[in-house]
Design brief:
Number of helices: 5
Order of helices and strands: HHHHH
Number of strands: 0
Radius of gyration: 21 Å
Largest sheet: none
Oligomer: single chain
Strand content: under 5%
Shape: elongated
């Protein structure tokens, strides 16, 4: 159940279950608002995490002004995020899922040592 919402002393996994329990419409509406706010926070957190990982990777892939290569470290954090994204995407963020798929496809099955070369 969304935080702060109770209905007949029972908990529910979301607004739909409140309707099934026969909770008042006002409580269902309150739960829906809170549920959507929670999903927005999760969506925002995943997007910020993904952006940070990509920014770090781009920085590592960009050569120094003198042309020398930087130490390649960003993939170690990015690959687990890509692998676990489908489990973390409880907000069903289609835009982010498409970006994750676009980035993850070329990296799928790649060895980190090979990518560093």
């Amino acid at each position: 159940m969304a935080p702060g919402v109770s209905c007949f002393g029972r908990s529910a996994a979301g607004p739909t279950e409140l309707a099934i329990l026969g909770c008042p419409v006002r409580e269902q509406a309150k739960a829906t608002v809170q549920w959507n706010e929670m999903l927005d926070e999760i969506r925002g957190g995943l997007r910020l995490t993904f952006k940070g990982l990509l920014d770090a990777l781009v920085d590592r892939l960009t050569a120094r002004p003198d042309g020398t290569r930087k130490k390649f470290v960003g993939v170690k954090r990015l690959l687990p995020f890509l692998d676990l994204f489908s489990k973390k995407d409880v907000a069903d963020d289609e835009q982010l899922r498409n970006l994750v798929d676009e980035v993850g496809s070329p990296l799928a099955g790649q060895d980190i040592k090979r990518l560093r070369k």
